[in-house]
């Protein structure tokens, strides 16, 4: 709310400040008091990698009680295990030393509200251009089944060790609670 008020007040004053300008100001304040220098990039202290949705209601570090340097956090729309997420998990495991993977989807996810074909048609209509990429948007209709699918994608990859724990959860955006999804 405070960030929105900053943006609203700057626009009322006739300023052309943007959201990026505002977050750059916040970064300047953050950097002035920065005390985390020297943290290693890997291994993360908990040896944990988390795949989560990009939704702005998920503050992954806070909801998991993570300090800076504790885990690798990989985010995208829907918390989908895409080829790039697999690439990141493999690097996290073999170069970063992670030993557990966690997948987090959430209630009221926007990826439940449309279908790939609908968005592709809309984009082609609005832009007048045929897409080259992405080939898919990975929408879904069943939250729990989507979590299970992501777990299976990770576990079935030949470069992910068979014994590595891969667990999935649904975050409730109204209560802040995580519920584990049985694989």
Commentary on this structure:
There is one protein chain. The chain is of the alpha/beta class and 183 residues long. It has 2 domains: 1-34, no CATH class; 39-181, 3-Layer(aba) Sandwich (Beta-carbonic Anhydrase, Chain A), CATH 3.40.1050.10. Helices cover 37% and strands 16% of the residues. The protein has 6 helices and 5 strands, in the order ααβαβαβααββ. It has a 5-stranded mixed β-sheet, covered by helices on one side. β4 (166-171) and β5 form a beta hairpin. The longest helix is centred in the first third of the chain and has 14 residues, at 19-32. The radius of gyration is 19 Å and the shape is globular. The model has no long low-confidence stretch (mean pLDDT 91).
Draw up the topology in text.
Elements: H1 2-12, H2 19-32, E1 48-53, H3 60-64, E2 71-76, H4 83-94, E3 100-106, H5 116-127, H6 143-156, E4 166-171, E5 178-181
Parallel strand pairs: 1-2, 1-3, 3-4
Antiparallel strand pairs: 4-5
The CATH class assignment of the largest domain is Alpha Beta
Number of domains: 2
* Strand residue percentage: 15-25%
Shape: globular
- Average predicted confidence as pLDDT: 91
Low-confidence regions: none
Compute the number of strand runs. 5
CATH homology superfamily name of the largest domain: Carbonic anhydrase
Count of alpha/pi helices = 6
Radius of gyration, whole Å: 19 Å
């Amino acid at each position: 709310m405070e960030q929105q008020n900053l943006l609203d007040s700057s626009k009322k004053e006739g300023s052309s400040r943007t959201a990026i300008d505002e977050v750059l100001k916040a970064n300047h304040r953050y950097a002035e008091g920065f005390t985390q220098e020297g943290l290693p990039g890997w291994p993360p202290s908990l040896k944990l990698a988390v795949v989560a949705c990009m939704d702005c209601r998920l503050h992954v570090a806070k909801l998991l009680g993570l300090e800076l340097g504790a885990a690798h956090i990989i985010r995208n729309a829907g918390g989908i295990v895409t080829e790039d997420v697999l690439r990141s998990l493999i690097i996290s495991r073999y170069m970063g030393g992670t030993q557990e993977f966690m997948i987090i989807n959430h209630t009221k996810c926007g990826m439940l509200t449309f279908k790939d074909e609908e968005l592709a048609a809309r984009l082609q209509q609005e832009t007048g251009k045929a897409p080259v990429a992405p080939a898919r948007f990975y929408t879904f209709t069943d939250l729990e089944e989507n979590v299970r699918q992501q777990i299976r994608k990770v576990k079935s990859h030949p470069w992910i060790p068979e014994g590595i724990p891969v667990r999935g959860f649904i975050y409730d955006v109204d209560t802040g609670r995580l519920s584990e999804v049985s694989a």
